Fold:
Amino acid sequence: MPVSTEQFKAGLASFGASVTVVTTLDANGKPAGLTVTAFSALSKDPPQCLVCIGHEADAYPSLRTASRYAVNVLAQGQLDLAMQFATHGRDKFAGVDHRPGGATGCPILSGVLAALECKVVSRFPSGDHDILVGSIESVEVHEGAPLVYFRGRFHDLVTR
Structure:
């Protein structure tokens, strides 16, 4: 019996995930980005990660042809950023403090827990998403705890 959409969502919602904002530059150099929880490490040697980008996302046209992207791992207290980049039809960068990454030029958001700058090495269409495999060109890490998405809600991670 096939898995229903509701079963699929319920099962995957049980997997807590760090919240990221994936950014790039479009063909005209304008920043584009979206909130993504479908992010994963892929390989240590060579260092690679992957992100899954939905075809309906505002930033999909830019990421579909991008040669580079940055993964901004959101920290606790950055729920507003997650919501801003997840909302369709708005200027994602309005009022957002960011700078160009040194390795790719892609936007690095201020206050993030980590930022990984990537060069696209593979692209795979799959269902209603594209999987972008990136060669990690630069990493910066800052102190703090992540913003987490679990069962349809954002949570701050409690550390002991």
